[in-house]
Structure formats: structure tokens, C-alpha cells
Design a protein that fits this description.
Radius of gyration: 17 Å
Pfam family, one: adh_short_C2
Strand order of the largest sheet: 3-2-1-4-5-6-7
Distance between the termini: 32 Å
Keywords: Oxidoreductase
Protein name: SDR family oxidoreductase
Shape: globular
Number of helices: 9
Family: Belongs to the short-chain dehydrogenases/reductases (SDR) family.
Number of domains: 1
CATH architecture: 3-Layer(aba) Sandwich
GO molecular function: oxidoreductase activity, acting on CH-OH group of donors
Strand content: 5-15%
Length: about 270
Amino acid sequence: MRPPAEFIRPGYRGSGKLENKVALITGADSGIGRSVAIHFAREGADVAVMYLSESDDAEETRRLVEAEGRRCLLVAGDIRDVAFCREALDQVIETFGGLNVLVNNAGTQQVCTDLAELDDELWRETFATNMHGMFYLTKAALPHLGEDDAIINTTSVNAYIGPDFLVDYTATKGAIVSFTRALSNQVVGRGIRVNAVAPGPVWTPLQPATLGAHDPQMLEDFGSDTPMGRAGQPSELGPCYVFLASLDASFMSGQTLHLNGGMVVNG
């Protein structure tokens, strides 16, 4: 990527907010997920990184986590596969002895400006990756979570603004908001907090691979329509996930935090 993405906020100092916690993060081989993994490690957590197939990127995430003095487990596979999600959870528990934080971050998008041309299979695959995988993994994780543990789901500003060129993706992100609210109400009595983060435009590999591939101008203008006039960096999101994972957010559940460059979405 040019320019390269930034993954850790300059000057960010850990303070033990996640000391000896275990976190599982999907889609953590790059982008927002990698930033979350590094920030969690700097706060004292061991991290399991789930990813599809980008082994070199995943190894770089592991290097960065281990540079913070924490352990890192790489788990490669497809979250659309319920059996894989269950096996991944078993591997995390076997390796680390428990689980405290689940970050459902993996996602995909493809540009389509006409619903009549949106392929049926693409619609199903977008939901399978963005929503079904979240369900499978959360269901497998819940028996291992307890008092003061947390689930954090990555939704999107698109769930609130409804861009016309990402109908299927936007529909999944709206589903994630509702899933977050309903699940929060279901498990709050067990002391488990469930929240979401709704990023605006963030400079990650997903953007050149999708928006840029469709229309280079979309990539050139990426983020310019925010009040801040720019896209965010993954490093600017990592600390938000730290907040939601830690006891700093002990009185917050069922909520969505909006890191979107100043867009007011009233959500």
C-alpha cells in the first residue's frame, strides 16, 4: 500500500489495561485487526490472530505482537465454515487456557451500483463472511467468556449512511449493529459486555483491493468527504478497541462507537 498504513499510534503507552488477558481477533493479519492486535499486546494481552490465507501478512502481525513481549497464535481458515470456527476456539483455549475478549473484525466488500446486477452468490458470500462467521464464532466463544469479558464487533459508518454502491455490505453492517444490541441484552446478566465500533473510511488493504479495483478515482478521493477531509489510519482505531475490551468500559454494553472523521450519524 502507498502510502503504507500506520498500525500503532505514535507515543501510545500501555498501562496494563489488558494484563494477562487472552484476545481472539478475526481479520487481524492487516488493517484494523492488526492495529487492534498490537494495541492489545501493548496493554498486556496474548493474542490469537484469525485470518483467511494471507500468511506473510499474518506472520508480520505475529512479529509485531511478539515484539511487545506477548504470545501470538496464528489460526488460518475460513470463518464461513462453522466447523473451522469451533476448531479455532478449541485451539485458542488449548494454547492459552481461556478467552477474555473476542473481536469480530473480518469482513469483505465488493462495489456494485445496480441491485439488478448484484450476483445472488455474491450476496450470500458477503453475508456468510461478514455476518454468519460472526455468529458461528461468537456462539463457540460464549461458553468460555464470563464476568468482565467482552465481545467487540466491527460494523461500519455505512450502516448509518447507506452508500448506494455497497448495498450488500451495508446490509451486513446494519445486521451487525442489531446483533450487537440483542446479544448484549442476552448476556449482560453474565457480566459480558457486547459493543461495536463503526469505522468511517480507514486506510486498509481492503480499499485498494475493492474500491480502487472498481474505480481508481474512488481510491484517490477516499475519505475526502469526511469533515476532517481525510481517511483514518488503523492506528487511530486500535485504542478504541482497547477501551471497549478493558474495564474502562465497565458500564457500557450494547453501544456503537463512531470513529469516522467527524460524520454525525445520530446512531
